[in-house]
Every structure is written in structure tokens, then in C-alpha cells.
Amino acid sequence: MKTGFIGLGAMGLGMTRNLAKAGHLAAVYNRTVEKAAALAAETGAEACGSIEQLAGNAEVIMICVSADQDVLDVVDAVCIGVKPGTVVVDMSTVSGETARIAAAKLAEKQAEFLDAPVSGGVEGARNGTLAMMVGGDAGVLERVRPVLTAMTARIEHMGGVGAGQACKAVNQIMCAGINQAVTEALAFAAAQQLPLDKVVDVIAGGAAGNWFLQHRGKTMTNNQYAPGFKLALHHKDLLIAERMAAQVGLTCPLTAATLADYAKLMAQGYGDEDISALYRLKQQ
Ligand code: NAP
Predict the structure, then answer these.
(1) Domain ranges, residue 265
(2) Is the same domain home to 213 and 108?
(3) Of 22, 89, 120, 236, which one's alpha carbon is 20 to 30 angstroms from that of 167?
(4) Residue with CA closest to ligand 1 atom 8
């Protein structure tokens, strides 16, 4: 299917390369135009000068931008050019409310919308092994499944519009707890003067093994925090999760503690580092 992609950041770059390999990528747009020009030269896709131009020529429009307002601004621009029947798939991590507003705007143009946030990090985006949680019409998902399959190892339909984002909030709360546990445990290991690479290797193979330890354990203990997943983006996701929890009368202490830790790191200028930069605080 003729697919246009908006947002060539850390995630979008890997995803578009996999779409190109599968023969789906027709056009790309990025706010910083140089990134779109470079990817177009590499893949043969068209680099569009505006979102409106991209929207008018695509059967499927994929979005992967930063936060709620960014998605809504992009959708407003898509609405100017979009044709009836086009399917817009947003893979950004935003609130379920934003997904429902985007769906309503596109419905006015007879276009379809799926919220389809992903998990698996930049490695998953690069390797085409992302896990995708989808909200929206199940029949629409089936129409675009061949495109989504080029970027993912697993696709789950979670329910109506917004259900994909609700599931992603579950993932982000869990990531906060895992980040707290791994960074605290490795700071403890360092204080015990253990050989840290061996600690990561042996624990990754046992009951406490997990993706974050495997992929970020050795970099954080070498004080390398290149994203990855930017800490400021996870902070944004946890604010969404905290708001959703409050709406149903839940408190999430781990989420609150992680938000406070991230706020400290962002105030020190570390917001663009990987979330494993939490190790900086644990070492103190
Ligand atoms: P990123 O590297 O910061 O890239 C953000 C992208 O969005 C850039 O292409 C940026 O354009 C574009 N953008 C931001 N605001 C825009 C706007 N108002 N209009 C048009 N384009 C805009 O972020 P990322 O890591 O790729 O993450 C993208 C989304 O995926 C986020 O919602 C994030 O929470 C989610 N996510 C990230 C990961 C991860 O591990 N990184 C994993 C799963 C999900 P410029 O190039 O011009 O700045």
C-alpha cells in the first residue's frame, strides 16, 4: 500500500527503513527537512515539503512524533490534504483522549484512524521487531496489517480508539518500575565493587533478566546515556499514565517517584539522555 510517513526521529528512521525494504514506503515528511531529504535519497521515497502534500498522495499515513499537541498539529495538517478512505496510524505515545480527538477530526474527512503505539525501543524499530498495541476498528486494522507487519513482531488489537494508548500507559508504568529496579541494583553492585559487565551478563540469564538490563546495563555502568528513549519523553508518558490513574481513583507510587526523579534530572539538563540516566541519581 502507498504509505507516507511523518516523523523521522529515533523511532521513525528505523521504521521507515523497514517499510522501504517491504516496498511500502512512498513518501516521507520531517519537520527538520534535511532528515527527510537524506532518507529519501537512501530509500527512493519522495521527500515531501509539507504534511498536506504527503497526505494527498497516500493510502496509509503513519505518524511518529513527540507528544499530544504535536500529534494534533500534524493531524490538523493531514486533514487539509487527506482523501476519503485513507487510514491514518499514529504510533506516537500520547493520551487516549488525543487519539479520540484525532479520530474525530479525521472522521469529518471520511478518513480512518488507529492509535498504534509501540514498544521495543530503537533496536526494535531498527530490526522490525516492535510490539504494537492498536485501538480502533478491527476491520481497518486488517486493511493496513500488511504495512504494520513490516515494522513489528507482534500486533495486538486492544479495543476501540484510545485502547492502544491505554495499553501503552501500562507498558510505561512497568518501564518506570524496571528502570528503578535495574539502576538501583546496578548502583548497589558498583558500590560492592563487583565486575559490572559480569553482573549484567549473569543476571540477564536468570530470573531477574529483562530487556532493559540486557540493552542498557553495560552502557549505563560505563556512564553512557545516548538515547535510546529520551528521559523527557518517558516523563511525558508517565504524566499521561498518572492522569489516567487519577481519573479512576488509583495512585501509582512508583510512577510518582520516577516522575520526581526524572524532574530532577531534567532540571540538571539530562532530559535528552536515555532513561537509563536515572543511574546518575542512584550512584549519588
Ligand atoms: P525523537 O527522536 O525526539 O523524534 C521526534 C520526531 O517527531 C522528530 O522527527 C521530530 O521532528 C518530530 N516532531 C516533533 N514534534 C513535531 C511537530 N509538532 N510537528 C512535526 N514533527 C514533529 O523521538 P522518538 O524517540 O522517535 O519518539 C517518537 C514517539 O515514539 C514519542 O511519542 C515516543 O514517546 C514514542 N516512543 C519512543 C520510543 C523510544 O525508545 N525512543 C519507544 C517507543 C515509543 P524534528 O526532527 O524536526 O525534531
Answers:
(1) 166-283
(2) no
(3) 22
(4) 9
CA of 233 to the centre of ligand 1 (A): 9
Catalytic residues, by residue number, are 168
101-118 residue pLDDT tens:
999 999 999 999 999 999
Give the model's pLDDT for residue 284: 83
Contact 63, 91 (CB under 8 A): yes
Expressed in angstroms and rounded, the spacing between residue 216 Cα and the centre of ligand 1 is 20
pTM: predicted TM-score of the whole model, two decimal places? 0.94
What is the count of structural domains for the chain?
A: 2
Q: Where are the beta strands (DSSP E) in the chain?
A: 3-6, 25-29, 46-47, 60-63, 87-90, 112-115, 118-119, 130-135, 152-159
Pocket lining: 275 vs ligand 1, CB cutoff 6 Å: no
Looking up residue 144, the CATH number of its domain turns out to be 3.40.50.720
